[in-house]
Amino acid sequence: MRCSTEEQERHQSVAMEAELLAVETRLSGRPAQEINDTTALTGEQQSTLDKHKVTLRIENELFLRRHPELHTLLSSFVSEVLLKKPQNIKEFAAGYFSDPSMLRQRHSPEADNSQNTES
User: Fold this and answer.
1) What SUPFAM superfamilies would the database entry show (predicted)?
2) What are the residue ranges of helices labelled H in the chain?
3) CA 97 to chain centre
């Protein structure tokens, strides 16, 4: 018995969602939910959540593409982390991104010129 195109697409969608959930579970380190877990989401709720996650990821990617300055800022942050190797990354990030004078200094034309002359 052959499945209709719509049924095939639905099966592919379900398989992709299951694979995405499996990957997310492995990456997040959270345990897979048991079949009898009464706190688990219903199939419909999980499907809605998974679709929302994909939509959000796409929106985030589009935002980052519209704001290339964020790439520069994050690259600078990662460089500082690799150079300074802070013990508490959350505290370091909070200080890094909340110090306006340091941000102005890091991204001012003078700072760019001094970096170019040091090379």
Assistant:
1) Dimerization-anchoring domain of cAMP-dependent PK regulatory subunit
2) 5-28, 43-66, 69-84, 89-98, 100-106, 109-118
3) 18
Name the token pair of 56: 């959000």
- Would you call 68 helix, strand, or coil by DSSP? coil
Separation of alpha carbons 92 and 56, rounded Å: 27
Query: Which CA distances in Å does 37 have to 17, 43, 67?
Result: 19, 13, 42
Cα–Cα distance between 90 and 29 in angstroms, integer?
20
- Contact between 96 and 80 under an 8 Å Cβ cutoff? The reply is yes
CA atoms of 85 and 57, how far apart (whole Å): 29
Q: Are 87 and 57 in contact (CB under 8 A)?
A: no
pLDDT at 46: 87
Contact criterion met (CB below 8 Å) for 13 and 19: no
The pair of three-digit structure tokens given for residue 48, joined into one six-digit string: 């809605």
